[in-house]
Design goal:
70 residues; alpha+beta; flat
Length: 70
Amino acid sequence: MCGRLNVIADPLSQLVSEQLGLNFQTTSNTDLKPTQKVACVIPQNGQFIQKNLSWGIKPQWSKTLLINAK
């Protein structure tokens, strides 16, 4: 996983909304860092919902967030 992420709200929000049939909203962040929140789409009860989740990978066995994992 790369440590940084580039989120550009438009046209991402519009495309996701149209393709998945939900009102997806996010804000642009050209330097999203691990542990910051990012808008995600997850399946729940047979439909897709938007949820803000922390960016990063933290397995149960790890005490810290994994950055640049292969």
